[in-house]
Amino acid sequence: MSLLDSRTRPTHQWLRPVAVASAVLLLGYGLLRLLDRLDGHSDKGAWAWNTGHTLFLLGVLGFAALIVGLHGLLRTRSSRLRTLDDVAAPAGLVGAAAFVWVILGDLFPRFADAVPTPGLVLYGGPLLFELGLLVLLYRAAAARLLPVWAPVLVLAGFLAIAVNLNLLPVGAALVLAGLLPLRVTPRPVA
Could you list the residue ranges that cross the membrane (predicted)? Predict the structure, then answer.
């Protein structure tokens, strides 16, 4: 039994460029965040803040597209794996939506005032996003669309960011390194 439905492979050529671009956008956000804090504080509303958060927003939207694409690519006949995919993808998308909510609040203070971010969204959203994406990346590795070490690099990147937001560029670089080898056709068995 194949982990992939061969009928869906050719339609996902956009997946790798979107994955790489999303990680590069996250890296750009991390670098601008560090630049913004060179004087010891963040200047909300300044060019580095706004540009960085816009890059972050675009990156999260790209990661959401990656989640949808991986879910579509990893079609399988196994009901257990299908259920796993069907739980991971919405979890990741709910988490991405939570990130979007927080980013919009950072970019637009009136939005944050009008729709305050609940703690569950602030803390639970990123976790759902990361878990959903990681499950799909591990499934992609099992389908030989990624090397087995690639999801580990993405996990290490997420952990670095969680430990300290000043490590965002390092974490984003790890995420980028983990997503660079993504393919939409399985690697040959060595």
Answer: 14-35, 55-74, 86-108, 120-140, 152-180
